[in-house]
């Protein structure tokens, strides 16, 4: 990126902290077949598109665009696989899920390297996300024989009971920011409940899900139970959401695309889970463990800040504001940046456009009166890097306070009272996550209760679990993934009323 005069701006601390290395050469990648993955094999698409290495913007792979024909074939195949998959004893389906978990663990290093190559993320973060993907299959393997109905005490002489049945073929629209783990988050419960899956990864990072599909076939998953259709949103994604045979949809992505997918689902009257973005508050009270709070606050820079539930609005109590912010600045300025395989603190952003959006948003914020406390520049011309950035004096109604920005940028706000910070934290269209830092037990519960968000973490960030529900309040989404709650989305309830009384 260039300054107004056209020179490359390299800010001194980051020039020193840049971790050198060419991303792809050092990765020793064994890429998957890059066609449309249907029925256990890779096929051609309607055309192809490049996947770029975010650290260099050089081509990493060329991938087939499934388009309408690819989606049509994948859905047909998944539809055919449905009856046999549903006929399996629950425990047998569970064994398949355990096999998938074991296969992910066996191939974990390869999958992590692929994710780091296509996403740019530091390799240690990718390793942990791949382990997290295996955890989903293990958790839902254990739930297959616990998807229970209920008996209802209706008036009269009846046996009234419910059963939970699968939806059928399910369509999964996956974002690029955590492809494999977010794919696993919905694929595992969908399969556990007896559905088949057609998954569409994002075009920026489709390789890890394609690799997973191959691994799943090797691990014995019956052909057609999981198909992967790479491609863009308007053609391949829309073909999937519009296919009448797809009886359930799950979308993880931006609020804007969520509206499109939600509309497509409404037109066909199919259930849809929408897992969208956020602008989450991270609230630091003066009695908190401030060292820990500062450390975790900057975990929002994981994945180069491209995290849906990042606490990007940091509210700090007036009593500790100056010292806490000074600590944050010191820590942020000592973060290393570089290609993901070298395992720095921050890798590049996903694309040059995404990085340029961040550049523009920060420039706009400064123009609107925000004060740059650190970062705010591009540390290196090649690759899509952006320095970890902290700004304060940001108005509550400025774009930076209201719109999700996917990048390593945090806005800092000063507050004085609990009531004030709750009101300001809730003054957003989003409601995905909230973080509270305090050692006052009553206050912790009070504030957690008052925040309008689907998940709250107290005295740690992040604190999310496969076992616990996750999803948005307000415009951050509809439905809950994870834990037992996901079963609600991947099953439909049938009520059976059996008359058992005899005629008088
Ligand atoms: P995106 O909305 O651009 O795309 C998500 C997926 O939808 C991609 O596969 C994309 O190709 C597809 N898509 C795009 N247009 C479509 C259309 N018209 N029809 C059908 N599918 C279409 O999101 P992204 O940029 O890939 O991901 C980043 C966003 O995801 C951020 O907003 C982030 O907050 C959000 N996110 C949310 C969660 C969560 O759990 N709530 C998790 C991760 C990311």
What report would you give on this structure?
This protein is of the alpha/beta class and 504 residues long. The site of nicotinamide-adenine-dinucleotide has 32 residues, from helix 8 and helix 9. Nicotinamide-adenine-dinucleotide binds next to helix 8 and helix 9.
Topology (elements, then pairings):
Elements: H1 12-17, E1 36-38, E2 41-43, E3 47-52, E4 59-65, H2 67-87, H3 90-106, H4 108-119, H5 123-141, E5 151-152, E6 158-166, E7 169-173, H6 179-192, E8 196-200, H7 207-218, E9 226-228, H8 233-242, E10 246-252, H9 255-268, E11 272-275, E12 281-284, H10 290-297, E13 313-317, H11 321-333, H12 352-367, E14 371-374, E15 389-392, H13 399-402, E16 409-415, H14 418-425, E17 430-431, E18 433-437, H15 441-450, E19 455-458, E20 473-474, E21 477-478, H16 486-490, E22 491-499
Parallel strand pairs: 7-8, 7-10, 8-9, 10-11, 12-13, 12-18, 13-16, 15-16, 18-19
Antiparallel strand pairs: 1-2, 3-4, 5-6, 6-22, 11-21, 14-15, 17-20
The structure holds nicotinamide-adenine-dinucleotide.
How big a fraction of the residues is strand?
15-25%
How many DSSP-defined strands? 22
Spans where pLDDT lies below 50 across 5 or more residues: 1-11
What oligomeric state do these chains adopt? Answer: single chain
Q: What is the residue-mean pLDDT, rounded to a whole number?
A: 95
Cα radius of gyration in angstroms? 24 Å
Distance between the termini: 86 Å
Q: Percentage of helical residues? A: 25-40%
Which word captures the global form? globular
Structural class from helices and strands?
Answer: alpha/beta
The main sheet comes to:
7 strands, mixed
Distinct ligands: nicotinamide-adenine-dinucleotide
Q: How large is the count of helical segments? A: 16
Spatially, the strands of the biggest sheet line up as: 14-15-16-13-12-18-19
């Amino acid at each position: 990126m260039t300054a107004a005069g056209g020179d490359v701006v390299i800010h001194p601390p980051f020039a020193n902290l840049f971790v050198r290395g060419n991303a792809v050469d050092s990765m020793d990648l064994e890429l998957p077949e890059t066609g449309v993955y249907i029925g256990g094999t890779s096929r051609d698409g309607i055309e192809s598109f490049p996947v770029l290495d975010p650290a260099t913007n050089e081509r990493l792979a060329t991938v087939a665009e499934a388009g309408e024909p690819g989606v049509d074939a994948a859905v047909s195949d998944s539809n055919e696989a449905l009856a046999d998959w549903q006929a399996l004893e629950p425990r047998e389906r569970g064994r398949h899920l355990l096999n998938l978990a074991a296969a992910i663990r066996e191939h974990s290093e390869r999958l992590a390297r692929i994710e780091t190559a296509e996403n740019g993320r530091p390799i240690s973060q990718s390793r942990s996300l791949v382990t997290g993907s295996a955890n989903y299959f293990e958790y839902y393997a254990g739930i297959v024989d616990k998807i229970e109905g209920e008996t209802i005490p209706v008036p009269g002489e009846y046996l009234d009971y419910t059963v939970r049945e699968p939806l059928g073929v399910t369509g999964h629209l996956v974002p690029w920011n955590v492809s494999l783990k977010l794919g696993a988050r919905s694929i595992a419960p969908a399969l556990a409940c007896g559905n088949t899956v057609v998954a569409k990864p994002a075009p920026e990072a489709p390789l890890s899900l394609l690799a997973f599909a191959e691994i799943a076939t090797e691990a014995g998953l019956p052909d057609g139970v999981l198909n992967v259709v790479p491609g863009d949103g308007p053609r391949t994604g829309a073909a999937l959401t519009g296919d009448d045979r797809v009886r359930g949809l799950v979308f993880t992505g931006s609020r804007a695309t969520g509206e499109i997918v939600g509309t497509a689902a409404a037109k066909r009257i199919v259930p849809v889970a929408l897992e969208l973005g956020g602008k989450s508050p991270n609230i630091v009270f003066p009695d908190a463990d401030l060292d820990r709070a500062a450390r975790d606050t900057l975990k929002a820079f994981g994945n180069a800040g491209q995290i849906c539930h990042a606490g990007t609005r940091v509210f700090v109590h007036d009593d500790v504001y100056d010292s806490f912010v000074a600590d944050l600045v010191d820590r942020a300025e000592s973060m290393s940046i570089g290609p993901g395989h070298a395992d720095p603190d921050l890798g590049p952003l996903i694309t040059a456009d995404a990085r340029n959006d961040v550049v523009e948003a920060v420039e706009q914020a400064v123009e609107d009166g925000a004060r740059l406390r650190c970062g705010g520049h591009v540390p290196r011309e090649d690759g899509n890097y952006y320095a970890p950035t902290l700004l304060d004096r940001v108005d509550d109604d400025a774009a930076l306070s209201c719109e999700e920005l996917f990048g390593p940028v945090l806005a800092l706000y000063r507050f004085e009272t609990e009531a004030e910070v709750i009101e300001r934290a809730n003054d957003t269209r989003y409601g995905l996550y909230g973080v509270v830092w305090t050692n006052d037990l009553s206050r912790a519960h009070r504030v957690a209760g008052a925040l309008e968000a689907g998940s709250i973490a107290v005295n740690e960030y992040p604190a999310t679990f496969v076992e616990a529900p996750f999803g948005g309040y307000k415009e951050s989404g509809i439905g809950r993934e994870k834990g037992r709650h996901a079963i609600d989305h991947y099953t439909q309830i049938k009520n059976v009323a059996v008359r058992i009384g005899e005629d008088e």
